[in-house]
Design goal:
This protein has about 675 residues and is α+β, with helices and mostly antiparallel strands. It is built from 21 helices and 17 strands.
Length: about 675
């Protein structure tokens, strides 16, 4: 709608045009007709009539419509800005009939606002009452309770939680939950809690105890979670005391059976009443045999049911390895976790005791000081492989081990009981060649996360805007080392977008370590980065990271020196390394020396090995080599880095078959591919 000034301008312009045209017409008529004195006033009146009519109509519209509309606009603005003000302009002109309706709307609005204020006051009072009742309930609640926000910062903890973590500096409002419970499995579980508030259980190992966590998503605006904790150590000790008491009772029952048998023997010597003797003998013998059988059945029932009361709970394999490494320290056995960590559903204390017993038996029979524990994902199962260099186990040895008790107590469950509880078995896998290790495989139930298929996003396009061949060559000693003996760090980045030279930044940087041809499961670098710019929605749809996820993270200027310290002088490995190295180099503004490590690119190595095959993206190669992304890890920096590491380990034997044995050979092969030559 035109403004009032525009309308006034048009009105004056129209009036002026009418006046000029009228005067021009009058002057022309005067010169042509030369009217008499009686006709001249009539001509002038007709010539000036349009201008006077325009002036009158404009004045009328201004007084009766335009000015009332301006007052109506001011009235609405005042009503919006200050609804409770009462010094309002009354409507006039042609808008005056709207005054009753306007008063009705204004009075109704003010009445509604008064009711809203009253309801708000009552709601605040009710909320304060509920808050006080909740605080009183939390004060007397014996179960430790924590509430954190979506960034896993503590919002609330009750006195029971304060007592549980007494002396721990990580307990405090606003502190990261990772300082209090430094378990990657808890961090991951909180990130994947279902939005519908479904209860999720998790078992966490500690130095001398086990914590059972119950996690539930809160439907509040901060998107946090409720965490309840239970120290199951006391329950296990109570169960052990019950078993010890029962173990003391059962020998007494067996003693009574022996006494009955002795009485039977004595009674057999009575010769006075042959008939009575015969009947007593039969009754006592029958009762003693029945009692002995019942006691034996009770004993076996108790032994078999030791694990039936335990529930299988989701456990992160790295947490299990950490607890196992601490247990094996006393036996002077070094445990090295390898492979990609995974979720599994197990009875944590029982599996921990079983693995410790198996490794102890292995150590007692062979001079073994170093074992590996590898996690392999199967179809609805997770396989734990204990690896060693020595002599493979026979089926006869495994059969003997299955009958071993887990603990040095009369009613301790046996290895067979634990296997039956988890629906698994043990079998030995001899080494395929002299360089590989013998393995003892234990299948366990996988977490429900491992069963659900994940949507596969579009792969990241390949970038080759800078050449791997331009990197400085390694020193002669490193170049001559066999690839299997190199210490390598496989890394990956996630960014705000794919156009790095136009401002896209790193938002996640992660790496994992390969030592002597083995991927270390518990040696990794994983850090979110604040890019100090918004993350586009289309990028978040791929990697799942949003602005709120990285808001509290350090900038790349802080993270990059930490990553440089983590990699040291290792060989760097990445898939489509040109993109990730470009991201690091554009972000490297520190005075320290730039990254000059040798770089292997699994994309180029795969092209060199299979030049006739199409599809050398990470998804295509993972499918080709049957590598599995644990659920929720695709397009995460650490998840992609670990699968790239497994891919490299699958490529090394094929490189060796083509005469590529050392780092220098591999770099030369990459250079040929970069220059467009087929090897």
């Amino acid at each position: 709608m035109p403004t009032r000034q525009t309308l006034l301008g048009l009105w004056l312009l129209l009036t002026g045009i009418c006046l000029v045209l009228g005067l021009g017409l009058l002057l022309w008529l005067e010169s042509v007709l030369q009217p008499s004195a009686d006709v001249r006033p009539v001509l002038w009146a007709l010539g000036l009539a349009p201008a006077l009519l325009s002036l009158s109509i404009g004045w009328l519209l201004e007084r009766r419509l335009l000015r009332p509309l301006r007052q109506f606009q001011i009235l609405l603005a005042r009503l919006v800005a200050s609804p409770d003000a009462h010094s309002d302009y009354p409507l006039d002109g042609w808008l005056q009939p709207l005054q009753p309706d306007m008063d009705h709307i204004r009075d109704g609005w003010r009445a509604d606002r008064a009711r809203i204020r009253e309801a708000h006051t009552q709601g605040a009072q009710e909320a304060e009452r509920i808050k006080q009742e909740l605080e009183a309930l939390l004060q007397v609640l014996d179960m430790p309770l924590l509430i954190c926000d979506r960034h896993q910062r503590l919002l609330l903890f009750n006195p029971a939680a304060s007592a549980m973590f007494e002396g721990r500096p990580g307990l405090g409002l606003g502190r990261p939950l990772s300082q209090l419970l430094p378990h990657p499995s808890l961090h991951d579980a909180l990130q994947h809690l279902p939005q519908d508030g479904t209860l999720h259980q998790l078992l966490l190992p500690g130095e001398h105890h086990w914590l059972r966590c119950q996690l539930r998503r809160l439907g509040s605006h901060h998107g946090g979670a409720l965490i309840t904790l239970q120290d199951t150590t006391a329950a296990l000790e109570h169960d052990q005391r019950w078993r010890r008491t029962l173990a003391q009772l059962l020998p007494k029952l067996r003693g009574h059976c022996g006494s009955l048998n002795s009485a039977t023997d004595a009674l057999l010597q009575v010769q006075d009443n042959a008939d009575l003797q015969q009947r007593l003998e039969a009754a006592i013998e029958q009762d003693s045999q029945a009692l002995a059988e019942q006691v034996e059945q009770l004993t076996r029932l108790v032994e078999a049911q030791q694990l039936s009361q335990s529930t299988l709970e989701e456990t992160w394999s790295n947490d299990l390895c950490t607890a196992l490494k601490a247990q094996l320290t006393q036996q002077q056995v070094t445990l090295t976790p390898i492979g990609i960590p995974a979720w599994l559903r197990v009875d944590g204390p029982a599996i921990l005791a079983l693995l410790q017993l198996l490794i102890q038996q292995l150590h007692s029979q062979q001079p073994i000081d170093d074992v590996t524990l590898e996690v392999l994902l199967g179809n609805r199962r997770v396989y734990l492989d204990i690896g060693w260099q020595g002599t493979p186990l026979t089926e006869q040895q495994l059969q003997q081990w299955r009958a071993l008790p887990l603990f040095d107590e009369p009613l301790s469950p046996r290895i067979d009981d634990v296997l039956e509880q988890h629906g698994g078995d043990l079998w030995s896998l001899p080494a395929e060649n002299s360089d590989s290790w013998h393995r003892l495989r234990l299948p366990l139930p996988a977490s429900s996360r491992g069963i659900q298929p994940l949507p596969r996003p579009a792969p990241r396009p390949e970038f080759h805007d800078f050449s791997i061949a331009d990197l400085p060559p390694p020193d002669a000693d490193q170049a001559s080392l066999p690839l299997q003996q190199l210490e390598m760090v496989v890394f990956d980045t996630e960014t705000t977008g794919l156009d790095l030279r136009r401002g896209d930044k790193i938002i996640s940087l992660a790496g994992c370590r390969i030592v002597n041809g083995r991927l270390l499961a518990d040696d990794s670098f994983d850090q979110l980065v604040n890019p100090q710019r918004p993350i586009p929605t289309e990028s978040s749809a791929i990697h799942g990271l949003h602005d709120a996820d990285v808001a509290g993270s350090p900038p790349i200027e802080v993270v990059l020196p930490q990553f440089r310290h983590y990699i040291g002088g290792c060989v760097l490995v990445a898939h489509n390394a040109a993109f990730d190295m470009l991201a690091l180099r554009l972000a490297d503004n520190s005075p320290e020396p730039a990254l000059n490590n040798a770089v292997l690119d699994t994309l180029l190595l795969s092209r060199a090995i299979d030049p006739t095959l199409e599809g050398h993206g990470l998804d295509a190669l993972a499918e080709r080599f049957e590598l599995t992304f644990p659920p929720g890890t695709r397009h995460t920096a650490l998840g992609d880095a670990r699968v790239t590491a497994e891919l490299l380990l699958n490529l090394l034997p094929r490189l060796a078959a083509r005469g590529v044995h050392t780092l220098g050979d591999a770099l030369a092969l990459q250079q040929q591919i970069e220059q467009g030559h087929t090897p």
